[in-house]
Amino acid sequence: MRSGSDRMKTQRILLLIISILILCTGCSTGNADAVPADQEKNSPESSQKNTQNEKQLSVYADSVKRAEGYKDIYEKAANENKLGSLEFKRQVIQFFGEEGCVAVDRENQIDMTHYEQVEDFCQKAQNKQDAEVEIFSILNEGQFIRYDLRTSGGKIQVIISSIEWADGSPRGNYYHEFEAYTWKYTEGGYFFIEEYHPPGFDGDIGQTGFRVIPLDQTCRDLNQQYVYPVGYTRNKLLISDWNEQDYSDLDFYDLYEILYRLKTGSYLSYLEHTRGAEFEIPENEFEEVLQTYFQISSEQIQENTVYHADSQTYRYRPRGMYDAEFAYEPYPEVTACEEQEDGTIKLTINAVWERKLLDCAFVSELVVRPLENGQYQYVSNTVIHSDQTIEPEWYTPRLSDEAWASYYGEQ
User: Fold this and answer.
1) How many CB atoms lie within 10 A of CB 330?
2) Which phi and psi angles does 159 have, rounded to 5°?
3) Is residue 332 helix, strand or coil?
4) Ordered strands of the 363-370 beta sheet
5) Which is one Pfam family of this protein (predicted)?
């Protein structure tokens, strides 16, 4: 007969065995598909993600360090409320240039520093050689987009990252990698890259353009003074033939909206109404704006608008959803200028259209008349046709009276 102590010992052993079996069974059924921690860490997906995170942190750290280098410039501009000025961007670009970096503003209104580096990169990419280059694209508010480009075998790998300022300090806020779907370097000195977007994609466009070859500074100054403020957005100033004897191909309602802002520094209050609204603008208010920028009579304005003589007002209908402007239109670039015998200036203007990877989508010659105190008038525009010229499909005409009535009903 076994003693009580032996029986207790046996029971303890049995309990221990049962516990071990339960534990083992639980482990085998509950984690049958589990990947060991060391294998998970060493998986290709995890390794790739870790590598990208390391690159992202490295790029952010380097970009933050560079941004801190122009912190004094940033703070001075912030105190003077000039963070959106072209001069502030020019100072930041100059800083990058002194550091040996390639830099240009996002709108390509300032010459690129160390542009030879980009020329060399494009040449090597065309020859399917290996090369690398960094481009800093300067935005408003001291922000910048950084493009780390690497080419091999004719293909270009792109890393896009950006820096913003928050509470007086720079920080990284965007990182993205892709292989350029298409790219080209034009005879006119533009470098375009494109990221593929599937049909129906509703985010930012995938095309980016950099002016590499410098422009004559006089042409740049004339562009800023006379052309760029109007540009190609919602108007036909640069895409139609007209002169001081015949304004029939211009839309004065389009120009009134733009020129009102240039004259007063404020946006037209009527623009807040976009659903079939109709207004009567007093004759003197409407004509004063247009006659500031055109040598034009009241009769010429009335011939090309809807004028109500009984109330001495002009009918005005803001654009709405049915005649909204095409997004991502070109921007103008003055490539040549010539002073005429009568004191006017003839400007040759190219339409740079990033969306189509074109540095010369449309060409015209605009004549302006400088006046005293920095004022000026637009005299004429002539479209220069060529095999490369494309139709200005970005412009949407305003609704006709018939179309207006069908959408909004009789007023």
Assistant:
1) 24
2) -115, 120
3) strand
4) 331-339, 345-352, 363-370, 376-384
5) DUF6070
Q: How far apart are CA 396 and CA 390, in angstroms?
A: 15
Which residues are within 8 A (CB) of 59 and not within 5 positions of it... i.e. 6 or more apart? Answer: 146, 148, 159, 161, 172, 175
CB 133 within 8 A of CB 121: yes
Q: In 13-130, which ranges are E strands?
A: 102-105
Q: What is the pLDDT of residue 51?
A: 67
61 is a domain residue: yes
Structural domain contains residue 392: no
Tell how strand 131-138 and strand 102-105 pair up: parallel
| CA 61/CA 262 separation, integer angstroms | 41
Distance CA 105, CA 139 (A): 6
- Count the domains in the chain: 1
For the chain, how big is the Rg over CA atoms in Å? Answer: 32
The angle that helices 283-293 and 252-264 make with each other, rounded to 10 degrees, is 80
Mean pLDDT of residues grouped by 10 in the chain (411 residues)? 42 41 40 47 59 89 98 98 97 98 98 99 98 98 98 98 97 96 97 94 89 98 98 97 98 98 93 84 98 98 98 96 90 98 98 96 98 97 88 94 90 51
The first and second tokens of residue 150, run together, are 């690497």
Candidates 365, 360, 349; CA nearest to 389 is: 360
Q: Which of 92, 107, 380, 324 is nearest to 228 (CA)?
A: 107
> According to the model, what pLDDT value does residue 30 have?
40
The answer to whether residue 179 sits within a structural domain is: yes
**Residues contacting 374, CB < 8 A, separation 6+:** none
H helix and E strand count, the chain: 11, 15
| Residue ranges making up the domain that contains 62 | 53-214
User: How far is the C-alpha of 137 from the C-alpha of 222, rounded, in Å?
Assistant: 23
Give the chain's length: 411
User: Are 280 and 316 within 8 A, CB to CB?
Assistant: yes
Domain-embedded: residue 58? yes
User: Is the separation of the CB atoms in 104 and 113 below 8 Å?
Assistant: yes
Spatial distance between the Cα atoms of 351 and 331, rounded to a whole number of angstroms? 6
Which tokens go with 221? 């100054």
Beta bridge partners of residue 313, listed in sequence order: 282, 308
And the tokens for 229? 């403020």
The DSSP line for 286-302 is: HHHHHHHHB---HHHHH
